[in-house]
Amino acid sequence: MKAHFEEPYLLSIDQVKKQFGSFTALHNVSLSIKPGEIFALLGANGAGKTTLIECVCGLMTEFEGEIRVAGYDVQKDYRITRQLVGLVPQEINYDSFLKSRQALHYQGGYFGRHGLKERTMALLRAFRLEDKAEVNSRKLSGGMKRRLMICKALMHEPALLFLDEPTAGVDVELRDELWSYIEKLRESGTTIVLTTHYLEEAERLADRIGIIHQGRILRVAEREKLMLEFGRRWVEVVLSEEVPERLLGALDGLNPVRTAPRRLRIEFAEAHAVQAHPFQRLQAAVAKEGMVIDSVEGGLSRLEDVFREIVHANE
């Protein structure tokens, strides 16, 4: 079912609270997803990612707050919203007695989909499973089962697709392949919400990133803005002589560290790197000591470092 709406967000989550007895899994979560974007929802095990997804997809129907998909309330208008949403769960879930073609055919039938044969074969071709159409799904490799799961979730052409740990347990080659498929889905207009423990996955794919911890959304930002705000740049130099103590003092505020007798490392906020002032300051301080820089290495913190910093600051 194609979504036709005028609202700026395809998914709107407003003050959602979910409790299991005395345990609160979601604490008044609010979040909005724009049409056509890949949104990465990051959090440790038990942070609330899957619970939130299940509330949106209709697998959990009792919660406080409001969730709307394309303007439709998931509790009141569930017949519509379930047509708009697709889910690839973390655990591989398939009928082991069905052939690949049959699994997709029946999945489309659940949603009243027309043109099942054409849609089935189009997806099998797109995910390079065409030659496995008549193969029993239990005989597929782990990677092929993952691809078949994505095909099932796409059979009814959802406007919003949830990928819950889509590359868990797959090898590096297949992971790269699935990343390419995800990018193609976005290009075709599908809005994607991705949860993953492989933060390089979010670093490559996501337009925006949300960090959830203990049932609370801590931060939502565009990937580049998040890295600019929390990212750190490091530079390590090898000097012509041993690093004197007074040089460390002259670089106060840049977290100077003597990593070897002649090696000096500084670290500074990524936002400062654009102007390159920290390194110029290092060069000036080294020159003032009458030394020269023999070699330079440098790098950036990764999304994993940013994630840890934000989570630890809220513990």
Largest sheet: 6 strands, mixed
Which descriptor suits the 3D outline?
elongated
Number of helical segments with 4 or more residues: 12
**Helix amount:** 25-40%
What is the CATH T-level topology of the largest domain?
Rossmann fold
Widest sheet: strand order?
6-7-8-3-9-10
Order of helices and strands: EEEHEEHEHHHEHEHEEHEHEEHHEH
Low-confidence runs: 1-6
Q: C-alpha Rg, in Å?
A: 24 Å
Beginning-to-end CA distance, first to last residue: 42 Å
Description:
The protein has a 6-stranded mixed sheet with strand order 6-7-8-3-9-10, sandwiched between helices. It contains 12 helices and 14 strands. It is α/β, with parallel strands linked by helices and 315 residues long. Residues 1-6 have low confidence and may be disordered. It folds into 2 domains: 11-227, Rossmann fold, CATH 3.40.50.300; 231-312, Alpha-L RNA-binding motif (Alpha-Beta Plaits, 2-Layer Sandwich), CATH 3.30.70.1560. It is elongated, with a radius of gyration of 24 Å.
Task: Record the SSE blueprint.
Layout: E1 11-20, E2 23-33, E3 38-42, H1 49-57, E4 64-69, E5 72-73, H2 78-84, E6 85-88, H3 100-110, H4 116-126, H5 142-154, E7 160-164, H6 172-187, E8 191-195, H7 199-205, E9 208-213, E10 216-222, H8 223-230, E11 232-239, H9 245-250, E12 257-260, E13 263-269, H10 270-273, H11 277-288, E14 293-300, H12 303-312
Parallel strand pairs: 3-8, 3-9, 6-7, 7-8
Antiparallel strand pairs: 1-2, 1-4, 4-5, 9-10, 11-13, 11-14, 12-13
Helix pairs in contact: 3-4, 3-5
